[in-house]
Write a structure and sequence with these properties.
0% strand, 71 residues, 5 helices, 434 Repressor (Amino-terminal Domain)
C-alpha cells in the first residue's frame, strides 16, 4: 500500500479532517493535501511525526508492512 493511501486511512480512522491533522503535525493544510494526494513525499521528520501520532511503525506507514505495531 502506498504512503498516501495509508495516511488517508489512518486520518479517517481517527475521524480527523485534513486541516485538523495538518495542525496537529505542524504542517500547512496545503502541505498535508499534497502528501495525501501523492503530489509530495514526506521528509524524515514528518514521517516520524506521523508514525508517532498514529503510534504505528515507519514500515507500516510507508507500506512495507501490514503490521502497524512498533517493535
Amino acid at each position: 500500500m502506498k504512503f498516501n493511501v495509508r495516511l488517508k486511512e489512518l486520518r479517517k480512522s481517527k475521524n480527523l479532517t485534513q486541516v485538523q491533522l495538518a495542525e496537529k503535525l505542524g504542517l500547512t493544510e496545503r502541505q498535508f493535501q499534497r502528501l495525501e494526494a501523492d503530489d509530495s513525499k514526506p521528509n524524515f521528520d514528518n514521517l516520524i511525526a506521523i508514525a508517532d501520532f498514529f503510534d504505528v511503525s515507519l514500515d507500516y506507514l510507508v507500506g512495507r508492512s501490514d503490521n502497524p505495531e512498533r517493535r
